[in-house]
Design brief:
The chain has a single domain, classed as TIM Barrel. It is about 45% helix and about 10% strand. It is built from 15 helices and ten strands. The strands form two sheets. An eight-stranded parallel beta sheet has the order 9-6-5-4-3-2-1-10. A two-stranded antiparallel sheet has the order 7-8. The longest helix has 17 residues, at about 110-125.
Length: about 325
């Protein structure tokens, strides 16, 4: 099947929404080529690492499932993503069996842990979810307010074991695991979602701490998310999600040939003073396939801007088409 530039420009976007009241915004997007949504959480829920009492009281599995089915009426092959981290943010709290707490996960065998992850993912699949933006593979051995209470430990070997079991378990249930945030952010002074901050870690330490990403790839992770801030040892100018150098490392030395998902392109440490459109074009050009952005009415203008960038020659039509094809392949379950 041949797709238009307009359809490709929509296929590569993953718009995020913090409630279940966005069908009117996203339906035209899906009807015109979009094939992904992130059903996310509010900033307060993100910061607290827990869903609000109001959400827990209002949302039921039946309500969530019915909403997803409404979206799939517009796009049957729809990527429905959520944050479902082990030890961190769990968007499906109260809707599916809980993932084990880290203390419990560390006591389980690899097979038992994978089974627990499978049961959570199996229930999520019944709700219509097809992608977990997890596991977090960052090994944090310094400070990192952005990932506080979200990571799985300061030891690369331990994190590798947990990441591998998570990937195997959730993907056995038909959920795509998006291992994040490559190449790993062990020590950040501030939250890149709030300020422009960079990772200053030495290259040998970065590679040593990236062991969990190699473990995830060996376990078959279908997707990897790049990070939201520059990694100075690799590329001091561009955030990992807009860096051709970082993505070349992932494709080359790490041998990953699956779907590359950007982190939130709206983050100050990712935009670095550029517009959202400029950041999206830079991320695609660097080699990312699926771009995470805040959802809203501005999505249509962003899509039009991506098309205009191709027509101006700022963005390769082939690169856009390749990214869109990778996203559609995942949406179709391949």
């Amino acid at each position: 099947m041949t797709y238009s530039l307009d359809q490709d420009a929509r296929a590569i976007l993953l718009p995020a929404f913090d409630n279940l009241n966005f069908a009117h915004v996203v339906e035209p997007f899906l009807q015109n080529g979009g094939c992904s949504v992130l059903i996310g959480e509010t900033r307060a829920e993100y910061v607290s690492r827990a869903m609000s009492n109001e959400r827990l009281a209002a949302e039921t599995p039946a309500l969530f499932q019915a909403f997803v089915e409404k979206l799939k009426a517009c796009c049957p092959d729809l990527i429905v993503a959520v944050d479902q981290e082990m030890g961190g943010i769990r968007r499906l709290q109260g809707l599916v069996p809980a993932l084990p707490e880290l203390a419990d996960a560390n006591k389980l065998t690899d097979d038992a842990l994978a089974e627990r992850c499978f049961l959570t993912a199996q229930a999520a699949r019944r709700l219509g979810v097809s992608m977990f933006l997890a596991p977090i593979a960052d090994v944090v051995d310094g400070q990192n307010p952005w990932l506080r209470n979200r990571t799985m430990g300061p030891d690369a070997q331990t994190v590798s074991r947990l990441v591998s079991a998570y990937v195997k378990g959730v993907q056995r249930a038909g959920i795509t695991a998006v291992t994040k945030h490559f190449p790993g952010f062990n020590d950040l002074d501030a939250d890149p979602a709030l300020v422009d901050v960079s990772l200053q870690t030495a290259p040998d330490r970065i590679l040593a701490n990236a062991l969990p990403f190699a473990a995830a790839i060996a376990a078959g992770t279908k997707a990897i998310m790049t990070g939201p801030a520059p990694v100075v040892a690799l590329d001091g100018t561009n955030a990992a999600s807009t860096s051709a150098t970082v993505i070349a490392l992932l494709r080359g030395q790490f041998g990953f040939d699956g779907l590359i998902v950007s982190d939130d392109l709206d983050a100050p440490a990712t935009m670095r003073g550029n517009s959202l459109l400029e950041t999206a074009v830079a991320s695609l050009t660097a080699g990312a396939d699926l771009l995470l952005v805040a959802g809203g009415p501005h999505i249509e203008a962003l899509c039009d801007g991506v098309v205009a960038a191709v027509r101006r020659g700022t963005l390769s039509a082939g690169r856009l088409a390749d990214a869109a094809a990778r996203v559609r392949k995942n949406a179709a379950g391949h």
